[in-house]
Amino acid sequence: MRNRSSETRLLVCVAMMLGSCLLHGQRNTPPSVEVRVDASATDGILPRAWSYFGYDEPNFTESENGRKLLKELAALSPVPVYIRTHNLLTSGDGKGSLKWGSTNAYSEDANGKPVYDWKIVDRIFDDYRDAGVRPLVEIGFMPEAMTTGPPPYRHSFPQGSVFTGWSYPPKDYEKWGELVFRFAQHLRQRYGDAAVKTWLWEVWNEPDIGYWHGTPEEYFKLYDYSAAAVLRAVPFARVGGPESTGPANDKAAAFLRAFLEHCSHGTNSATGKTGAPLAFISFHPKGSPKWLGDHVQMGLSNQLAAVDRGFKIVADFPEWRKTPIIMGEWDPEGCAACSAKGNPQNGYRNGPLYATYTALAYKSTMELAREDGVNFAGAVTWAFQFDNQPYFEGLRELATNGLDKPVLNSFRMLGLLSESRYAVNSDAAIPARQIEASGVRSLPDIDALATGKDREVEVLLLNYHDDDLPGSDANVRLSVDRLPEDARRVLVEVFRVDSSHSNSFNAWQRLGSPQQPTPEQYRSLEAAGQLQLESSPFWMTVDPDGLHLPLSLPANALALVRISW
Questions:
Q1: Fold assignment, 17-45+420-564
Q2: What is the set of active-site residues?
Q3: Catalytic residues per the record (predicted)?
Q4: N or C of the chain: less Cβ packing under 10 Å?
C-alpha cells in the first residue's frame, strides 16, 4: 500500500473507531473473532444445492478443456452434479463462440417436412455421460426453420443485440411439440431409463426479457406444449420452469407469479385441461458489482433481494410452497461472457473474492429459504469455461485454458462438507436479512458453516466484504464444543483459498502473466489451481471443554478445517 501522511493515518484511525470500513483503499477488521461450533447440536440437513452449473455455449463441452472441467465438476463430491446449457435446439454448424452454440437438431426439406439430426446433440450428451454429470435439459432455442422472427438468425456478440431470430415463438406449436417429443424420445432411447430418470427438464430461458420475443401467454403456451411432449416421451420426467429473471423488480415478479398461477389454474394449451405440470420452480437472481474507480464493490444485497422475493412469491402459493426451487442462474452479475477488460466491475472473477462471495451467497440463500419456509434445492452457477480466449481475461468461468480458478476451489470445499449441519455462533456474523438490506459495507462478515459425520467434523470459515480492498487478517479462535467421548486426540487439516493458496491467478501473475506459458509453467499453474492445505495435517489434544484452534483468516478468503479421529 502507498505511504500515507500522518493526517491520513489519523483519519484512518478515527474512521476505524467509528466502524467505517472504507477509507483511502483500506477496510477495517475486528481485532479478534470467536467462532463456536456445537458438535452435539444438529441444525438440520445441509442441502447440496451448489452442485449445479451452466453455460451458454454447449459446443464448448466438446473441447479438451471442456471435458476436463466436466470431470473435475463430477469429482467435487459424492453428490450428483447437474449441467444446464442454452442452445440445445439452435440451428447452426455446431461451432461455439461467446454466448452462442448450436446443434442443428431440426431443419426442413424443400416441402417443409421436418428433418431431425441428433449427431451434435449426441456428442454433447455423450460427454455428460462419460464425465459422470447429469443434464438439466434446457429446451431451446427456436430452430431457424421454425422461428417467426426476422433475420438475422445468429447474433454477432459483442456487436449488436444477442436477441436475434432464435428468440421468437414458433410458426407452428404442433411442430414445436413434435420436435420436443422426438428430442426427448431420442435421449431416452440412447441413454436408457435408469439414467434419464435422474435428469431434470426445463423450458426456455428468461422468457420475461429479450430471450423471448413473445407475450407471457405465448410462453405459457410454449411451456404447455413442451412439458406435454416431454412427458409423452418420458412419462417419469421432472419438468420445471419458468427460468425467468430475478424477481427483485416488479415486472419479473409479476411474470413469475402469473406463471405459477397458470400452472395452478390456467387452461393448458396442449391438453385443454386445467393447470400444467411443475416439478420444480426456477428463476435467476443476480448481484450487481460496481467499479468505484479503484476497486470493485460487490452487490450481494441485490442478489439476496431477488432470492428473497422469489421465495416469498412461491410461498404465497400453498400448492407450490414445498415444490423444489432450483434457481437456473444464481450469480454475482449477469454476463459471463463480458470480460473485465471492457467491464472493470468484473475484475473480481479471477481472484478469491469470487470464491468467498459464492460461499456466503450459498449460506445466506439457505438462511432465507428457511425463514421463508420454502424448499431450496439448487442454485446453478452460470460459469464453465471458454474456448480460444486469453488466460485470465476476466470472464466468469471456473477455469481458464484448463487452469482452475480460485472459485472452483470454493466448490471443492463445499464438496467436503457432510450432510448433517451443526449449530454455529460467530460474534462477527451478519444475518442474511441484514446483508439483503444493506450489503456488507461496514465490518466484514466472518462466519462459518459446520457439518459432520461419523468421526469427522468440517468447518468452512469465511471472511467476506463487498469491497475488494486490502484489510487486516482476522484473528479467529475456532472452538468445537461437545465432541464425542472418543475424540480425545484429533487430526486437523486446514485447506485455504486466499491470495497465496489455491490460487492459479496469483501464481500466473508471479510468473509475469504469460499468455503462452511453457509446459513447465503450465504444470505449476495447474498445481496452483488445486485446493491446497495450509500445512501438513497435525494432531491436537482436545481439552475438557472442547477443541480450540487459533486461525488467521485473510480478507475475502476461505478456510476449511477438517477434524477427524
A1: Immunoglobulin-like (2.60.40)
A2: 206
A3: 206 (proton donor)
A4: N
